[in-house]
Amino acid sequence: MLPESAHVKSAYLGENGLLSKLKPGTVCIDSSTIDTNVSVQISSTIIKSGGIPLDAPVSGGVMGAEAATLTFMVGSRNSNEFENAKSILELMGSKVIHCGDLGAGQTVKICNNMLLGSAMIATAEAMALGTKLGVDPKLLATVINSSSGRCWSSEVSNPCPDVLPNAPSSRDYSGGFATKLMLKDMNLSLNAAKSQKLPLFLASLSTQIYGHACAENELANKDFSSVYKWINKK
Known about the structure:
This protein is mostly helical. The chain folds into two domains: 5-102, 3-Layer(aba) Sandwich (Rossmann fold), CATH 3.40.50.720; 108-233, N-(1-d-carboxylethyl)-l-norvaline Dehydrogenase, domain 2, CATH 1.10.1040. The chain is built from eleven helices and five strands. It has helices spanning 5-13, 36-48, 61-67, 79-89, 104-132, 137-144, 152-155, 179-195, 201-215, 217-220, 227-233, and strands at residues 27-30, 52-55, 58-59, 70-75, 93-100. Strands 3-4-5 form a three-stranded mixed β-sheet. It has a two-stranded parallel ribbon with strand order 1-2. Pathway: Amino-acid degradation; L-valine degradation. This is 3-hydroxyisobutyrate dehydrogenase. It comes from Smittium culicis. One of its GO terms (cellular component) is mitochondrion.
């Protein structure tokens, strides 16, 4: 699992890369979140080298990895190759979902993170507004999580410090999923939408917000829920 498309390209195609020593029949599972077209291109090269590629990005974050409850979104050439790899992925995740052909796992992951990124900003704004108006943040989170506003960002990784003791926000946003990586994933979704001539108004604005947050070096490497901190500075 590597951060960006360039890193995956280098790992497979670079000097002394994996493909230079790949044995026929080797299963190559990539759990990075990268550009779908790049993933498909690398998979094609793996096939030409005799390997069996699968794109299998994950959702669940650090907490999911520690508890082996990750969700794997898998793209493969056929169901047989998916089933052969499934037993490996089940050691690390509680859900392993076949999303379709090669690249489909990346597409589903990009859509998921686009939604997650926007939902985190909306949650941060709601928590910031409520606390500014004098509502206890723990009470506010309890009501939200018992109502229609409930989401992963409010219930599992609430961006307001001290609401959830195990959330990154309660340890100065350390660990978790870096803001700069969320910005990367938001841009992946915008690039994919551009190729389909599909306007994404909310995702575009959310991407700008993460860009502004990353411009403050302090937040770029913090968990992306630190967007709450950026909002409160404005």
